TrEMBL record:
PANTHER family reported in the protein's UniProt record: TUBBY-RELATED, TUBBY-RELATED PROTEIN 4
Pfam families documented for this protein: Tub
Domain Tubby C-terminal: 4-38
Stated name of the protein: Tubby C-terminal domain-containing protein
Similarity comment text for this entry: Belongs to the TUB family.
Length: 43
C-alpha cells in the first residue's frame, strides 16, 4: 500500500451512514467491513 486511505465509513447524522472505498476493496468487501464495524458497536 502507498499509505493512502482506501476505506472510510461513518455516521453522518441520525441513522444515515456513508461508505467510501476504492481499490483494493470491492463493494462487497467494503460493505462487510462496515457491517462488522456496526456489529461491534452494538455489543
Amino acid at each position: 500500500m502507498d499509505g493512502k486511505q482506501v476505506l472510510q465509513f461513518g455516521r453522518i447524522e441520525g441513522g444515515a451512514y456513508t461508505l467510501d472505498f476504492k481499490r483494493p476493496f470491492s463493494a462487497s468487501q467494503a460493505f462487510a467491513v462496515a457491517l462488522a464495524s456496526i456489529t461491534q458497536r452494538l455489543k
